[in-house]
Each structure stands twice: as structure tokens, then as C-alpha cells.
Amino acid sequence: MEQVECSFCKGDIEPGTGKMFAKKDGSVLYFCSSKCENNMLKLRRLPRKARWVTKKKGE
Q1: CB proximity list for 20: less than 8 A, separation 6 or greater
Q2: Full DSSP string of the chain
Q3: pLDDT above 70 as % of the chain
Q4: CATH 3.90.180.10 is right for the domain spanning 4-45
Q5: What is the pLDDT of residue 59?
Q6: Which residues, including other chains, have CB under 8 Å from residue 58's CB and lie 6 or more apart?
Q7: Is the pLDDT score of 57 beyond 60?
Q8: Cβ atoms of 6 and 19 closer than 8 Å
Q9: What is the structure's pLDDT at 44?
Q10: Which residues contact 33 (CB under 8 A, 6 or more apart)?
């Protein structure tokens, strides 16, 4: 199994966990938690403005 990255917080998602959301246009979003899913889809927040989102090294 390959390890995927959360579309909101860019955290790693272990195989067998998380959610996959397919949009109408065919793009796929992966979420590690309902917190990330709700912030992106329902609340329409930007990850760069969320204080709790950790930034990876080099970004």
C-alpha cells in the first residue's frame, strides 16, 4: 500500500485510515480526519491561514 498525503494539512495518512473524497470534476481529495475534511469542504478555509496546520520543512 502506498502512503498518501492529506489534502488539507499535508500530514501522512496511514493505509486503512482516513477518507477519500471524489469531486464531480474527477479530482480526488484525501483527508486524515474529520477536522481537516470539515475545514476544507464545509467551512472553505485555506490551509495556509489555519494556525494548527504544521508546515513541512523546506516550505
Answers
A1: 28, 29, 30, 31
A2: ---EE-TTT--EE-TT-SEEEE-TTS-EEEESSHHHHIIIIIS---GGG-TTPPPPTT-
A3: 90
A4: no
A5: 55
A6: none
A7: no
A8: no
A9: 94
A10: 18
C-alpha cell at 39: 475545514
Which residue matches cell numbers 476544507? 40
Angle CA 51–54–58, to nearest 5: 125
b/e burial code for range 9-37 (CB count within 10 A of at least 16 → b): beeebeeeebeeeeeeeeeebbbbbeebb
Domain spans of the chain, in order of start: 4-45
Whether the predicted pLDDT of 22 surpasses 90: yes
